[in-house]
Every structure is written in C-alpha cells, then in structure tokens.
From TrEMBL:
<dbReference type="InterPro" id="IPR000835">
    <property type="entry name" value="HTH_MarR-typ"/>
</dbReference>
<dbReference type="InterPro" id="IPR036388">
    <property type="entry name" value="WH-like_DNA-bd_sf"/>
</dbReference>
<dbReference type="InterPro" id="IPR039422">
    <property type="entry name" value="MarR/SlyA-like"/>
</dbReference>
<protein>
    <submittedName>
        <fullName>MarR family winged helix-turn-helix transcriptional regulator</fullName>
    </submittedName>
</protein>
<feature type="domain" description="HTH marR-type">
    <location>
        <begin position="10"/>
        <end position="141"/>
    </location>
</feature>
<dbReference type="Pfam" id="PF12802">
    <property type="entry name" value="MarR_2"/>
</dbReference>
<dbReference type="InterPro" id="IPR036390">
    <property type="entry name" value="WH_DNA-bd_sf"/>
</dbReference>
Amino acid sequence: MAPAVSDDALAEFADVVLRIGREVDPHGPHALDIVPLTGTEALVMRWVHHNPGASPSAVAEATALQRSNCSVALRSLVTKGMVERRTDPDDARTVQLHPTALAHDSIARLHAHWADRLRAALGGDEDGLDAAADLLRRIDDGLRRRG
C-alpha cells in the first residue's frame, strides 16, 4: 500500500517550514533588540517560560537534552538575566527555575514580531491558520515522541 502523502510532498513541507523559520528568526534579516540566545538556550527558555517553577532535571528531561548541556544553557540564561533560580519553598534541597522580567519582555517582543511578520505575510487572510497550527503541533509532538 502506497503512503497517502508522497516523500516529495513531505520533503517540500519540511523545506517550507525551514524557510519560514529563517524569515521569522529574531536574529535574521529582521533582527530584534532582544537578548540573543543560542538554539539550546532558546529551547530551554521556551520550556521554562511555559513551565515556571520546573526543576533543572525536569527541563533536561522535557527538552531531551543531556543534563550537562541543559546545565550549561541554564547557567548562560541566568548570566544573561533571563532565568532565575529559586529555592523550592516546600523543599530547600530543590531548585525551581523562573523566567525573569527581562525574559517576559524579550518574549513579548518576539511574539509581537512573529505576529506582525505572519499577519503581513498572510495579507489579512488568516483562514486555515488554526488548522495549520494544529497540524504543526501534531508533527512536533510526533517528532518528539519518536526522537
């Protein structure tokens, strides 16, 4: 039985996703005045932003990073003022990670940049955006589950 979608169609889809990624890259041709992050730092920051209070171990597991690589990224994010470590009020042996005000500001500017770029690219025709986002989330989830 032949696959429902051809390999060429899937490859073209991946290529389009990569091209879009380059266009909305905050350090690309339309650079923003935000704290510059490496790919690993951005991955860790995204998780901490969505899961404030997570432990370093939880972040490493959720992002599929080696603990040592996650620790390096976290140290850098702390140094850049993007993440703060707090002692867990219920267990002084545990550290919780929280985004800082600087992180919230940078993320808000980044999200506004993305929204502006995508709205302009769509020219006001946003039909199908929710379905496209759902499809991309399914792909993201499937890729993460399968490594």
